């Protein structure tokens, strides 16, 4: 299966959570938001990539077969999305009915009572109208630059003089939120919400009547999804940060890959906007429902009784950390493995906080990919630098969709006296490691963190990830080597304990898979368990097929894309593939090799993909 279709199957499993009646009702609504957010990113990245391949094939006279293949893939993608969207719409309808049974109402402008209508109109004029950005459109002029994170109302105006105009209104959800609660005194004691879009629809004529005589007005939600690929300047001019900042500005005006519109929108309006956006291919036009940016439903308020949302998770104490006020003392006694979100990420941020004021700590090195907007990790690093620790931070500026935030963090860290590096040319630094150097009894002792997830307090509450804390001399020495490699790339370094891409990761997989296959051929026990987000690397897939043919029992836990087909006689009958989609996002990557009863277990931040 093509990886794009495999990914859509994964998002279909997210949709199944929204359909599952065993999931708390408001959480089902939030899963619809997750599905929608995932689909947006899919268009920005995966569909945009297919479109680029089509453009390249069109320009190559020898690529006729490739062109047909990519066009067929794009058609299959749209067909699958249409199927999922139909399930989505039906699920949303059923959830609204279930919410209403529990006196939680999500009403539109046609369902307002007289009292509610009066309150909504007051809210519009006092809070909403001053924030509206409105454009009148002319087919002779370019459309205003539409922001991808925003949604808009496309407005059709019929004036009393017979003239027809088109207009755009930006919906200010970032300032007012998407869901506006209507006071309970106007809702018979029920919890009623109206979506911000619908308040504008209800008061639409008021936007224009001040300056023109409107006979009829109607509005339809539209949204544009753009190609998220950054144009990288290969010329050695300017800094990486400057070049990336320029690329981010270009992304805001990136090629539209999807124009999604209200299916009730008149054909003439659809044609007008498609022409304006340069979207000639039908594959790029998506008829949707009345509401777009459904990802806002991820933040639907927790109202009603407690059973409508997940019960708050109580963190499991780490006995090793809990019995020591000084966390370095705990790590010095034994290695400690945490599993988020069941353990508290605060153990790590507290370790950095202690390190920032510990007189014995001399240096901290860390690699940052994504951090929280109010990051305690960054605050601790800044405090450490201000307390005269040598703090070195590698910031991956090319962390997709976090580039702008990471540029700002880099500036903030640099201003605080932190030594900031930006990784390795032509590589992304995806590793989640930290190294702390501490003087103990006249000797330097190193403490290391190796993890599968980001140093991000918020995602650590919803992603499953491992963190290993150790002062094992050989492991900490190798963690130091990784930082040396980042600072001085492509040096020849040897690693015994760590698997480091692009140096030895692939070879270590190859050796261990083949070893299990050899053991199976000799009639010995042989097993492999791999857990990852994605499996799309053809070499690893082929090695697993051969191991299965040799008799190795292989269990794969692949959350997302999987291009391996299990259960095929003579090829993969010894392979099972399971995808877990539940309350928490499965994010940890784990590899377990039986090794004749002496298992080898590895944790990783890398997926089974060619680039890794």
Judging by the overall fold, what is the CATH architecture of the largest domain?
2-Layer Sandwich
- The rounded Rg comes to 27 Å
Mean pLDDT: 91
The CATH C-level class name of the largest domain: Alpha Beta
Number of helices: 17
Strand content: 15-25%
**Overall 3D shape:** globular
Would you mind describing this structure in some detail?
This protein is α/β, with parallel strands linked by helices. The protein folds into 3 domains: 3-308, Polyphosphate kinase middle domain (polyphosphate kinase like, 2-Layer Sandwich), CATH 3.30.1840.10; 319-487, Endonuclease Chain A (Endonuclease, Chain A, 2-Layer Sandwich); 505-604, Endonuclease, Chain A, CATH 3.30.870.10. The chain is built from 17 helices and 22 strands. The protein has helices at residues 3-19, 25-58, 64-101, 114-128, 173-176, 196-202, 204-208, 240-252, 267-277, 319-322, 327-333, 346-357, 376-386, 403-415, 473-487, 505-521, 538-550; strands spanning 104-107, 133-137, 152-159, 164-170, 179-182, 191-195, 214-226, 256-262, 285-288, 336-340, 361-368, 390-395, 419-421, 432-440, 443-451, 463-470, 527-532, 553-558, 575-578, 585-586, 589-593, 600-604. Strands 10, 11, 12, 13, 14, 15, 16 and 20 form an 8-stranded mixed sheet that branches. A 6-stranded mixed sheet has the order 2-4-3-7-8-9. The protein has a 5-stranded mixed sheet with strand order 19-18-17-21-22. α14 (403-415) links the parallel β12 and β13. The model is unreliable at 233-238 (pLDDT under 50).
């Amino acid at each position: 299966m093509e990886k794009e279709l495999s990914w859509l199957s994964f998002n279909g499993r997210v949709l199944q959570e929204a359909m599952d009646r065993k999931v708390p009702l408001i959480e089902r609504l939030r899963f619809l938001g997750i599905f929608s957010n995932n689909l947006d990113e899919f268009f920005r990245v995966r569909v945009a990539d297919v479109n680029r391949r089509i453009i390249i094939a069109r320009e190559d006279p020898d690529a006729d077969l490739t062109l047909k293949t990519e066009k067929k893939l794009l058609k299959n993608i749209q067909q699958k999305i249409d199927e999922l969207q139909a399930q989505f719409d039906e699920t949303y309808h059923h959830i609204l009915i279930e919410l209403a049974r529990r006196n939680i109402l999500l009403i539109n402008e046609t369902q307002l009572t007289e009292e509610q209508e009066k309150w909504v109109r007051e809210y519009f004029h006092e809070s909403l109208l001053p924030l509206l950005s409105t454009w009148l459109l002319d087919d002779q002029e370019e459309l205003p630059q539409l922001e991808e994170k925003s949604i808009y109302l496309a407005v059709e105006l019929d004036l009393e003089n017979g003239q027809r105009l088109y207009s755009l209104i930006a919906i200010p959800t970032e300032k007012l939120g998407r869901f506006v609660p209507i006071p309970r005194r106007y809702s018979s004691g029920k919890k009623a919400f109206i979506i911000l879009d619908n308040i504008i629809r209800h008061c639409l004529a008021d936007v224009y009547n001040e300056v023109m005589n409107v006979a009829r007005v109607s509005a339809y939600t539209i949204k544009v999804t753009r190609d998220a690929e950054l144009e990288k300047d290969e010329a050695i001019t300017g800094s990486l940060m400057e070049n990336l900042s320029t690329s981010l500005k270009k992304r805001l005006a990136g090629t539209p890959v999807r124009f999604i519109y209200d299916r009730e929108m008149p054909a003439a309006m659809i044609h007008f906007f498609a022409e304006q956006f340069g979207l000639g291919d039908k594959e790029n036009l998506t008829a949707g429902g009345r509401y777009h940016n459904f990802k806002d439903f991820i933040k639907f308020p927790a109202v009603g009784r407690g059973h409508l949302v997940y019960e708050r998770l109580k963190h499991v104490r780490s006995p090793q950390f809990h019995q020591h006020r000084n966390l370095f003392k705990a790590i010095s006694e034994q290695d400690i493995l945490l599993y988020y979100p069941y353990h508290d990420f605060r153990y790590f941020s507290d370790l950095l906080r202690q390190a920032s004021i510990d007189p014995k700590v001399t240096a901290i090195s860390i690699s940052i990919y994504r951090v929280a907007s109010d990051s305690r990790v960054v605050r601790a690093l800044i405090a450490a630098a201000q307390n005269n620790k040598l703090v070195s931070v590698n910031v991956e500026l090319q962390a997709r969709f976090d580039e702008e935030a990471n540029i700002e963090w880099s500036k903030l860290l640099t201003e605080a006296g932190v030594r900031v590096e930006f990784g390795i040319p032509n590589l992304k630094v995806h590793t989640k490691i930290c190294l702390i150097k501490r003087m103990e009894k006249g000797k330097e002792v190193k403490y290391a963190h190796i993890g599968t997830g980001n140093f991000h307090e918020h995602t650590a509450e919803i992603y499953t990830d491992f963190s290993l804390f150790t002062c094992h001399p050989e492991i900490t020495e190798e963690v130091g080597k990784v930082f040396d490699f980042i600072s001085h790339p492509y040096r020849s370094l040897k690693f015994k304990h760590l698997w480091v891409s692009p140096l030895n990761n692939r070879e270590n997989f190859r050796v261990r898979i083949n070893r299990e296959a050899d053991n199976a051929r000799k009639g010995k026990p042989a097993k492999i368990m791999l857990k990852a987000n994605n499996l799309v690397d053809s070499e690893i897939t082929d090695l697993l097929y051969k191991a299965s043919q040799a008799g190795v029992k292989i269990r794969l836990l692949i959350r997302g894309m999987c291009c391996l087909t299990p259960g095929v006689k003579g090829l993969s009958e010894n392979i099972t593939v399971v995808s877990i989609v539940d309350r928490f996002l499965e994010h940890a990557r784990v590899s377990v090799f039986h090794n004749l009863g002496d298992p080898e277990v590895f944790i990783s931040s890398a997926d089974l993909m060619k680039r890794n």
